[in-house]
Amino acid sequence: SQTRGGGKKEKPDTAAGGGGGGALGWEDPAKEVEEAPMTSIPDLIRKKRDGGQLTDEDIRVFIRAVTGKTIQDCQTGAMLMAIWQRGMVPAETNTFTREMMSSGEVMSWPDEWRGLMVDKHSTGGVGDKVSLVLAPALAACGCKVNRDSNMSPCVT
């Protein structure tokens, strides 16, 4: 095997009294457990930027870094730009959506509400006049109206 300096690293000759025990750093190769290297965020960005397909694990690492706030904003922006420029295959989109969905608090509803849950999605803003009358009208008809999807809740 190679050392960092490029030279050869030789295993001592145990027959010549060179030892070879674990204390010297020479373990039995059968005992070695190879760990998969952790993919770095810059590697993921580079992979997507260069047209590669992200694996489920790549996407999971990225989403967890974003939601765990262990990634720089500029790296999040770089990844999203790479995704926007290169696109995603359906498998990537499916995994990305699933990981985003399960990254936060998942709401659940009683079984008796099945078929009654509705949501009026809005991007918000000053011009949204529909939600104001639609949500109460749907509730009056027996629907259960969820209004957590507004992107601008302080305005609407």
Automatic annotation (TrEMBL):
InterPro entries: Glycosyl_Trfase_fam3 (IPR000312), Glycosyl_Trfase_fam3_N_dom (IPR017459), Glycosyl_Trfase_fam3_N_dom_sf (IPR036320), Nuc_phospho_transferase (IPR035902), Thymidine/pyrmidine_PPase (IPR000053). The keyword Glycosyltransferase applies. It holds the Pfam family Glycos_trans_3N. GO terms for molecular function: 1,4-alpha-oligoglucan phosphorylase activity; pentosyltransferase activity. GO terms for biological process: pyrimidine nucleobase metabolic process. It comes from the Eukaryota. Residues 116-152 form the Glycosyl transferase family domain. Residues 1-49 are annotated as: Disordered. The keyword Transferase applies. Keywords: Glycosyltransferase, Transferase. This is Thymidine phosphorylase. It comes from Oryzias sinensis. The lineage of its organism: Eukaryota, Metazoa, Chordata, Craniata, Vertebrata.
